[in-house]
Design brief:
By secondary structure, the chain is mainly α. The radius of gyration is 18 Å and the shape is elongated.
């Protein structure tokens, strides 16, 4: 099973790093999303973060995240958010 996972991760990295003309945007975005979910906010696959950084895939993930096309964080559920203290109120003039 570990060998199959390793093969898929290697193929995903190659897909992300391939020339733009060879890989459609949607496929590259999906590959970045898959690796980001394995690495952030918790590292599900051991050493996946190191591979993302060492191969340069992190630059692609961050570009898509910066453009709002993928997220690397958990979605906040408003009823689970607790407020400790209020720092301001109203409007300033």
């Amino acid at each position: 099973m570990a060998r199959i996972r390793e093969d898929h991760i290697r193929w995903t990295i190659r897909c992300i790093l391939a020339p733009k003309s060879r890989v459609p945007h949607a496929v590259r975005l999906g590959a970045c999303q898959s690796l980001a979910q394995l690495a952030f906010p918790e590292e599900i696959v051991p050493d996946i973060r190191e591979r993302i950084w060492s191969t340069g895939v992190i630059h692609h993930i961050l570009r898509y995240a910066r453009n709002g096309e993928l997220t690397v964080h958990r979605k906040a559920i408003i009823n689970q958010v607790t407020f400790d203290h209020q720092i301001a109120s109203g409007t300033s003039s």
